[in-house]
Design a protein that fits this description.
mainly alpha, three-stranded antiparallel beta sheet, 19 helices, 12 strands, about 45% helix, about 10% strand, binds glutamic acid
Length: about 475
């Protein structure tokens, strides 16, 4: 058995779509599961569609997801001469031919086909040119492309690792252009040669490529090469039921990163878009996935990109991640955020972390840590309490905290603060609401916020005491 070699082969025509990242992930996992190699190949032969910076984005997104590729990046553009030689070889063997048809002629064919509801495609005019005619055209330097002479009979049969036995008629495919008139190879030629030269054994890609597979196979066969195994992944659809698009939210991996999704969470979410883990568990680390991943466990049916599930999963990963590590990520993502200037940000993050679905949430509804908002003094009174008990409670808590001298404020835990407040409740014939509510409101000035004990812990002595004393003055 050959060592498994997979490749991720994006075209540098834009950012890295999450759907493409899923393809990369599956290719990576399959290679690593088999102790094989995962290659990155840049399909950059379509020179008009190149987008600057795309390759850097691919590299950094793969790195961020922890999908390290093996060897050097393969740029197809560096292999142009090799592709050209093979195109010429195919021509000399009669497996490809020079097509001299002008743009106008091709346009006429297209219009005729459209007008007569005929299937689109090249009419193979130049496939039948005589040797003399070809020589004439060449002598006149007539521009040409090289087209593949697609078999006119027979079928492409392949055993798809996901979809099982597949069979499509060769004749349904057009005589594909292998090399353009400017000498640049097309995807079909370059990918076959590069797959072969880098020993690719498994081609893992989206199912939109199924109709092209007969062309891929015919080209391998024409070159006398073993055909790699194909695995076509199910499409990812948005909640609308249509192919994932901008309407379903962000589509590029970079956007998810910027919003504060963790790579471990996105990876875990993406693998479940199509891969069936065959267990109730839904949390998998990359290493576990490498152990368990099988191409045969990929579903054929479309996978729904459920953003709510991603949010939930990301929240779970945030809770599991050490606060220090989260703090570092937040610092890098949002260096200008005001909340980062607070010296107690680590404590704020510690208590807020259980409420975040993505890291950018820390920038929202957290202004009260920086400045206590103006509030209506009546809000300090719990719905089943009254003004007198509220003032009493706030005073008692102030005293209890001041006399709590076993450890310093900084050394107190959230549970210690809870014990202090509970004691105030128990020893003074007050209810939980009489005490916990006004302390919480005094500290946050918000209808919703973390608990009073968490806030006492996060805000620290000075700020907590000042906010509570301000509340007592306000309510009087
Ligand atoms: N460059 C192609 C793409 O952008 C790769 C197709 C394949 O994997 O064969 O999807």
């Amino acid at each position: 058995m050959n060592k498994v070699v997979t490749r991720f082969a994006p075209s540098p025509t834009g950012g890295l779509h999450v759907g493409a990242m899923r393809t990369a992930l599956f290719s990576y996992l399959w290679a690593k599961h088999n102790n094989g190699k995962f290659l990155l190949r840049i399909e950059d032969t379509d020179r008009e569609r190149l987008v600057e910076g795309a390759v850097l984005e691919f590299e950094s997104s793969l790195k961020w997801m922890g999908l390290d590729f093996d060897d050097e990046i393969i740029y197809q553009s560096n292999r142009k001469e090799i592709h050209k030689n093979y195109a010429e070889k195919l021509v000399s063997e009669g497996k490809a031919y020079k097509c001299f048809c002008s743009k106008e002629r091709l346009k006429d064919i297209r219009e005729f086909q459209e007008a007569n509801s005929l299937p689109p495609g090249y009419d193979k005019h130049c496939r039948k040119l005589s040797k003399e005619k070809i020589s004439d055209l060449e002598a006149n330097n007539t521009p040409y492309v090289i087209r593949f002479a697609m078999p006119e009979e027979g079928r492409a049969n392949w055993d798809d690792a996901v979809r099982g036995k597949m069979s499509l008629e060769y004749a349904l495919s057009d005589d594909q252009i292998l090399m353009k008139s400017d000498g640049w190879p097309t995807y079909f030629l370059a990918s076959a040669i590069d797959d072969h030269d880098s020993g690719v054994t498994d081609i893992i890609r989206g199912e939109e490529w199924i109709p092209s597979t007969p062309k891929n196979i015919a080209i391998y066969e024409a070159l006398g090469w073993e055909v790699p195994r194909f695995a076509h992944m199910p499409v990812t659809i948005g909640e609308s039921g249509k192919k994932l698009s901008k309407r379903d939210g962000d589509t590029s991996v970079v956007d998810y990163k910027k919003k504060g999704y963790l790579p471990e969470a996105l990876l875990n979410f993406l693998v479940l878009l199509g891969w069936n883990p065959k267990t109730e568990d839904e949390f998998f680390s990359k290493d576990e996935l490498i152990k368990r991943f099988e191409l045969s466990d990929i579903n054929k049916s479309p996978a729904v990109f459920d953003l709510k599930r991603l949010d939930w999963m990301n929240g779970q990963y945030i809770r599991k991640t050490e606060t220090k590590k989260l703090q570092k990520i937040i610092n890098e993502l949002y260096p200008d955020a005001k909340i980062l200037t607070l010296s107690n940000f680590d404590r704020i993050l510690e208590i807020e972390k259980t409420r975040l679905t993505k890291l950018s949430d820390i920038l929202e509804n957290t202004d009260f840590y920086i400045n206590l908002p103006k509030y209506d003094p009546k809000s300090l009174i719990f719905k089943k309490s009254n003004k007198e008990d509220t003032i009493k409670a706030l005073n008692l808590v102030t005293k209890a905290l001041a006399y709590f001298t076993l450890v310093t404020w900084e050394e107190m835990s959230i549970v210690d603060f809870e014990n202090v407040l509970k004691k105030v409740v128990e020893e003074n014939n007050l209810s939980n609401g009489d005490v916990f509510w006004p302390v919480r409101f005094a500290l946050s000035g918000e209808e919703r916020s973390p608990s009073p004990t968490e806030l006492l812990w996060a805000l620290g002595k000075e700020e907590s005491e000042s906010r509570i004393s301000k509340a007592i003055k306000t309510i009087k």
